[in-house]
Automatic annotation (TrEMBL):
It comes from the Eukaryota. Its main location: secreted. The active site is at H257. Pfam families: Glyco_hydro_28 (PF00295). It is an enzyme of class 3 (hydrolase). This is endo-polygalacturonase. Keywords: Cell wall, Cell wall biogenesis/degradation, Glycosidase, Hydrolase, Secreted, Signal. Transmembrane segments: none annotated.
Length: 412
């Protein structure tokens, strides 16, 4: 068998502490001898009933302390490792690979999370050169959290649910060939990382599950996402403050809320996002397609952004910039400042929409969007039932090629 993230020859696994040879595609086919630390060798049962949190923590601690490249192995063969909240920390003495062959499943007991740790399930922090793969599954067991969400039960006070898998301050990170299902809230979060490759991920949750973003990226640079399929109840990819030089290619998205830059500038905060390149995306039944959303009262910028080669299928808001975003039960108070949105390209975007308003540029009066390019766009109503239109407020745009609908044909 091969590791999906770049093993060039078959690898045979034995028990923990057995030396095996991996061929990582790093700086050529560099050869490294790795030591395997199996969760089962540290008390893991994998029966889905008994708590395996400490078994994984001990296997990680041993691997992280290894002077040689190490592999933390979560065995497969139908095994389910029940985990409570867990943090796997670095720095490590050598490179570590987390090889998930079986399933990591979250404890169904919500009391395992208190107010201090309720926002996280599995956290990997401060590990450079980490590789994660193996084709296994990470199951957030989120149904109990969803029905207790204030977005489902409005009588409840709002409390955040855990993110299933968080990478924090992990540079030169590679994640390839994982399945993620039914996260309590966000499935995967990349925070404060530099040099990240995410590929061949399958992320799935019901379209009705609240706040279950697929991949959330914030305060990170030089991130590549490729060949992923994301079907959730919120953004397929959410791009937040501090994200720079992000490339997303060959993505299938839907159901969910589409690809979103933002929201930015909430609570009068400053946000900075630049160098975002979204290319070759198929969207199915999503609430939005290519979206930028910012709050009034914020500051900063979102610029140098490209959405191109996107195929929309029954998408409600295919192209939308909203500088008056307000996700609040109470109306948001109008404020003078805004996150500045500029140098945005929407190119070769085609398909069908369920909304007449296929292009919506809703920009700030005090900080208008500018340098917005619309090129080669063809968005039609589902089933050909009528024409589409677009609306513009405070937007400075230009078009090239054929653009359907014509920009700014609707009422402002």
């Amino acid at each position: 068998m091969e590791m999906a993230f770049g093993v060039s020859k078959p690898v045979i696994f034995f028990m923990a502490h057995v030396t095996i040879t991996f061929f990582f595609l790093v700086s050529g086919a560099a050869r490294a001898t790795a030591q395997v630390f199996s969760v089962d060798s540290y008390g893991g049962r994998g029966d889905g009933v008994r708590d395996d949190t400490q078994a994984l923590a001990k296997a990680w601690a041993a691997a992280c302390a290894s002077p040689r490249p190490a592999v933390v192995l979560v065995p497969g063969a139908g095994k389910h490792y029940l985990l409570k909240q867990l943090t796997l920390s670095g720095p490590c003495k050598s490179t570590v690979t987390l090889m998930v062959k079986g399933t990591l499943v979250a404890s169904p007991d919500m009391s395992s999370w208190n107010d201090e740790n309720r926002r996280y399930w599995i956290v990997i922090s401060g590990v450079d050169g980490l590789a994660v793969g193996g084709g296994g599954e990470i199951d957030g067991n989120g149904e109990g959290w969803w029905k207790n969400s204030c977005k489902i039960n409005t009588a409840l006070p709002c409390k955040g649910a855990p993110t299933a898998l968080t990478f924090h301050s992990c540079n030169n990170l590679r994640v390839d060939g994982l399945k993620m299902v039914n996260s309590q809230q966000i499935h995967m979060s990349v925070e404060d990382c530099i040099g990240v490759q995410l590929a061949h991920l399958s992320i799935t949750a019901p379209g009705t599950s609240p706040n279950t973003d697929g991949i959330h990226i914030t305060r990170s640079r030089n991130v590549q996402v490729s060949d992923c399929t994301i079907k959730t109840g919120d953004d397929c990819i959410s791009i937040e403050d501090g994200t720079h030089d992000l490339h997303v290619t060959r993505l299938v998205c839907g159901p969910g809320h589409g690809i979103s830059i933002g929201s930015l500038g909430d609570d009068n905060s400053r946000a900075e996002v630049s160098g975002i390149f979204i290319d070759t995306v198929q969207l199915y039944g999503t609430t939005n397609g290519a979206r930028i959303k910012t709050w009034q009262g914020g500051s900063g910028y979102a610029n140098n952004i490209v959405f191109q080669n996107m195929l929309m299928n029954n998408v409600k808001n295919p192209i939308i910039i909203d500088q008056n975003y307000c996700d609040s039960a109470k109306p948001c108070k109008a404020q003078g400042s805004a996150v500045e949105v500029s140098n945005v390209v929407f190119k070769n975007i085609k398909g069908t929409t369920i909304s007449e308003n296929a292009i919506n540029l809703n920009c700030s009066k005090n900080f208008p969007c500018y340098d917005i390019a619309l090129q080669d766009i063809n968005l039609k109503m589902v089933g050909g039932s009528g024409g589409t239109e677009s609306t513009c407020q405070n937007a400075k745009w230009r078009k090239s090629g054929i653009v359907v609908p014509q920009p700014c044909t609707g009422k402002n």
